[in-house]
Amino acid sequence: NAFLPGIIEQILQKRGTAILMYPLKALSQDQEGKIRTLLNGALGSSVSVASFTGDSKAEDLYAPDGSLPDLLIATPDKLNHHLTKPAIQAVLGQARFVVLDEAHSYRSFFGSNVALLLRRLTYQARSDCWFVISSATLENTIEFARNLTGRKRFRVVGCSGGPRHARYFYLATS
Description:
Elements: H1 4-14, E1 17-21, H2 25-42, E2 49-52, E3 71-74, H3 76-81, H4 86-94, E4 95-101, H5 108-124, E5 130-134, H6 141-149
Parallel strand pairs: 1-3, 1-4, 2-3, 4-5
């Protein structure tokens, strides 16, 4: 989730939502727990999170005050199935970011379906919506991103910008 701090900063400064897509419900639940822990520890309750996977209902995305979540964690199949629901359309209308984590899994038949979903999302989302594609194992990153999203401009961030401790390598000979 190296992408998360920058996205949260943008949402806090400029408002809007981020849709975080994970290929599997189990992975999205795992990431939701980590994201909530991070947010509660760092920001308190100033960033709201909702999950839209499995047996979730689109109507449940609204908070009691009628607001929508700042971060929506979802699976592509769930979004695709409920794309015409008013709550999903409202989230898309506010979306500043669509994040595709574990992007290397969006290949073959599943990848084709996700690519078509992303084109529908692009049609309904804000014009300044950014796609963030995260994967540790993609080889042809730019080409893959273009084919998956239909967009032409991408920038590859090849490593974390965070501080690192010194590394030492020792070679032993017998």
